[in-house]
Design brief:
globular, mainly alpha, 22 helices, 470 residues
């Protein structure tokens, strides 16, 4: 990608955030963000765009081994600093070293601390009895058991698991490069990896006690290993076992991700390039994946998978009921029929004081996803236009399927549930950026204009729904 083009994209991103923040702060001055939240927003936006630009320009022509070392060690160093610093920040802000509104995190921590005591006493069966009685099933148990194991071995130190998250997240940047460079090209892989090093979403969840970092780490590695397995066929048995193990682990973190991974494997096999798989090899591989999937569906985890799938979609009006309970206007519009068209972009960034602390703290983080959504969508156009869509049969099917699943579920407006698409967003966005043409700019500028209008409108609606604008 030309230096001027990358600089343009990054400067426009910074300017666009500043413009949206200024309009909302002036128009709704009584509810403008406090300086603390503005500092968080400006800091994350500047960090991502400036670091991505300068490091990509510096690293893009380095030998592969040098490039990968820089990606991993810079990612690990920055993440380790972040998780240590954010621990003290949260201690100062919340008094417990956990993020704002840390209901789930606190629940995971307390459960793991209690179970680790039982494990040391050899009362393992009690742990599973309690889990089976108080959780929805396997997908609610994996992360608690993971924390229990860490606490049992290393003690109840909340910094330790976060440093492990930092390590996983840093290696995920390397996995993104390997997957992208192998399935698409080196140029796209390098840009996607550098963006992954500095993406604020990855940093934020490293500093929490939620399971998102582990989930996207395992899912990205599963995709990378499956692609490696199909393209190289080296160490076939080992890589097959590893791919299956990684895929199985996702079911212990979020069932829907495991389901989508299996679906994306099937699509990848069907649409793989002729050079990659012959018709006979496709038929055999497809039959093997389908047979494995059907066998899995017959297990207790498979049955639970179908139940959770049903719950996710039969409870899709959860947000409507929630907003009606809070007495908010426009509650009837908080459903998938209204929100699904914006599935790539949601959730829109909040720039007023009416949101909770996590949303205010992450206002710049939300914006970066809103901005990158254009390039992820434009990738679809470019891949079809350049006849490269088969190369996205794995990455694209996983990303698009997850976006659609979330759009039509109860979690369409929850940033946390959108995180698994971010590795795919970075890869798709990098592909679109590296193949951008002059005639594409009219669509780009139209999008950023609409994005500013959408953000301002979203913040107006949040205030209006609470009766704060007359």
């Amino acid at each position: 990608m030309p230096n001027k083009l990358q600089r343009h994209f990054n400067l426009i991103g910074i300017a666009l955030y500043g413009l949206a923040l200024a309009i909302v702060s002036i128009c709704f001055s009584h509810y403008a963000l406090r300086p603390l939240w503005i500092a968080w927003g400006c800091g994350t936006v500047l960090f991502f765009f400036l670091c991505t630009y300068f490091c990509f320009q510096s690293w893009q022509k380095k030998p592969e081994k040098t490039f990968l070392r820089r990606v991993f060690w810079v990612a690990l160093g920055l993440r380790a600093i972040h998780v240590t610093a954010i621990l003290y920040y949260y201690y100062y802000q919340t008094g417990i070293g956990l993020e704002y509104q840390a209901a789930d995190s606190l629940g995971y921590h307390r459960a793991a601390a209690y179970f680790s005591n039982l494990a040391r006493e050899g009362r393992i069966s009690e742990i599973f009895s309690i889990l089976n009685a108080n959780t929805m099933g396997f997908s609610d148990q994996g992360y608690v058991l993971y924390l229990t194991g860490i606490y049992t071995i290393f003690g109840k130190n909340i910094l330790g698991p976060r440093l492990l998250k930092a390590l996983m997240s840093a290696y995920m940047c390397v996995a993104i490069y390997k997957l992208t460079s192998r399935s698409i090209d080196n140029k796209t892989g390098r840009l996607a990896a550098v963006m992954a090093v500095f993406l604020p979403q990855f940093y934020h969840y490293n500093g929490t006690y939620l399971k998102e970092t582990e989930l996207i780490f395992v899912a990205t590695l599963a995709l990378e290993r499956f692609d490696y397995l199909m393209r190289t066929r080296k160490h076939l048995a080992w890589n097959l076992i590893l791919t299956l193990a990684l895929t199985a682990l996702t079911f212990g973190l979020r069932t829907i991700v495991g389901m989508i991974l299996i679906g994306s494997y099937l699509i990848y096999v069907v649409f793989a390039e002729k050079e990659l798989l012959s018709k006979k090899a496709k038929a055999i591989t497809l039959a093997a994946v389908i047979a494995t999937s059907l066998f899995f569906l017959a297990t207790p985890i498979g049955k639970e998978m179908l139940i959770i799938f049903k719950v996710n979609f039969t409870e899709s009006n959860y947000q409507v009921a929630k907003y009606k309970y809070l007495g908010l206007k426009y509650a009837d519009y908080a459903n998938y029929k209204t929100m699904a068209p914006g599935a790539f972009v949601l959730p829109l960034t909040n720039l007023t004081e009416v949101a909770n602390e996590n949303q205010k703290m992450m206002n710049g983080t939300y914006f970066i996803k809103n901005y990158l959504a254009f390039f992820a969508m434009w990738c679809i156009i470019v891949a079809i236009r350049d006849k490269k869509w088969r190369r996205f049969s794995l990455i694209g099917s996983y990303t698009l399927a997850y976006i659609l699943m979330i759009a039509f579920s109860f979690a369409f407006n929850s940033e946390r549930y959108h995180l698994p698409v971010m590795p795919g967003f970075l890869i798709m966005g990098a592909f679109a950026m590296t193949r951008f043409r002059k005639k594409d700019f009219k669509w780009y500028y139209a999008y950023i204009g609409l994005l500013v209008v959408a953000i301002v409108t979203w913040n107006y609606l949040k205030l209006s729904a609470r009766g704060l604008i007359f």
